[in-house]
Amino acid sequence: MATPLNVGVIQNYKSYWATHFYAVLQCLHSHRTLNYTPTALAYYPSWKLRDLRADLPFNFFHQIESYLQNWGFQYFMSVFLNYKMSSDIVDQLIGRLSRLYNIQLLNRHIGYRFFLAGSDSILSEGLLDEFTEVFPLQLNGNRSNAQHLAQQSDLCLVLSFPIPYARLAIFGEVEGLHGHSLSNESYWKEKLPFCVITIGVIEGAGKNVYISDTFINNIPRVNLVFERKHPVVQDFLKVLNFMRVLFSEGGGTKMRSGDEEFDFFFNKVRQHWDKNTVELIDDLRTYCNDGELMGVAPKPIAIITDIQA
Predict the structure, then answer these.
(1) Which of the pair, 7 or 180, is modelled with greater confidence?
(2) How high is the pLDDT of residue 162?
(3) Residue 214's closest CA among 256, 254, 244, 172?
(4) Are 280 and 25 in contact (CB under 8 A)?
(5) DSSP SS3 for 239
(6) What total number of domains does the chain contain?
(7) % helix / strand / coil in the chain, to the nearest 5?
(8) Which has more pLDDT, 289 or 226?
(9) Of 59, 82, 187, 298, which is the most exposed, with the fewest CB atoms less than 10 Å away?
(10) Given the DSSP bridges, would you call strands 219-227 and 209-216 parallel, antiparallel or unpaired?
């Protein structure tokens, strides 16, 4: 049975909107499997927004927009779920996994952090250095393969434990377009069974977020879904819409939203039309305020041995 959840109150709208713009541009810069990507430009990684409009088909952004809705949403989630405003959602994820696998995770960890996973993104490089063990250790008699999971999943939640000091990786799948598929048996024929967190966007009559347990092929998972009309999803789509207009009209576009914080970042993007985009992405990341992120302990120093005790 699906349980409705509340996303926390937004305390810092600059941080919130920066995360949306950061996710779109970071996906455009770092995702290897987009049909049109700056990685194909001769001057990558020192590319400019103007370069894409000049060197790619005029409607290139329209052609990749649905892919950015899907893959870009996992970039967004990898930052957004680290915010304090998302802590209740994350506690629900961890608590449900604890119950499903009869293991104490929620009250034992001392911090967590979400990372992007998958070999289709440059951002996943170095992920294996962020954890010491994978959860669950075994499924149906089979042990997990950390390297395969890091390469073939979408998202990684790392929990830190104090005694013995360890960092536990929990992998998941994200579907920013077809979240309903996460509950279909056919979807998992091509996916790794050790991905036990699923996050998706679904069609729905409301503007809600739901969490539920799923059992496919005898594997328990926790499923988190956002209805497409939920403000977080709509705000992400709004950024994509403005970026499409930007690439259509160029850096001189006069388009405005009427939202002061949103327009602050859209103007920042416009002003970087003919400048290094990597510098723009780095600048946006500084607004994703670390002061609003959940604390995570330092690097691991020992393999976890018993977290059920």
Answers:
(1) 180
(2) 86
(3) 172
(4) yes
(5) helix
(6) 2
(7) 45, 20, 35
(8) 226
(9) 298
(10) antiparallel
Provide the β-strand partners of residue 214.
Answer: 221
Query: CB–CB of 72/64 below 8 Å?
Result: no
CA distance 141 to 139: 5
Identify the bridge partners of residue 174 per DSSP, sorted by sequence position: 199
Shared domain for 181 and 282, answered yes or no, is: no
pTM over 0.90: yes
Q: Does 107 lie in the same domain as 203?
A: yes
pLDDT in tens, 111-168: 999 999 999 999 999 999 999 999 999 998 899 999 999 999 999 999 999 877 899 9
Q: Residue 43: inside a domain, yes or no?
A: yes
> Same domain, yes or no, for 118 and 187?
yes
Distance, in Å, from the CA atom of 277 to the CA atom of 256, rounded to the nearest integer, reads 21
Residue 243 lies in a domain: no
Same domain, 112 and 171: yes
Please report whether residue 202 resides in a domain: yes
Same domain for 84 and 205? yes
Residues 80 and 199 in one domain: yes
Q: Are residues 137 and 213 in the same domain?
A: yes
170 and 191 in a common domain = yes
Compute CA 233 distance to the chain's CA centroid, rounded to the nearest angstrom.
Answer: 12
Task: Provide the pLDDT for residue 302.
Answer: 31
Instruction: List the one residue out of 218, 183, 221 whose CA is nearest residue 200.
Output: 183
* Distance between CA atoms of residues 74 and 135, nearest Å: 20
Q: What three-state secondary structure class fits 134? A: strand
- Indicate the SS3 state at residue 208: coil
Enclosing domain of residue 146: 76-227
Q: What is the pLDDT of residues 18-62, one digit of tens each?
A: 999 999 999 999 999 999 999 888 889 999 999 999 999 989 999
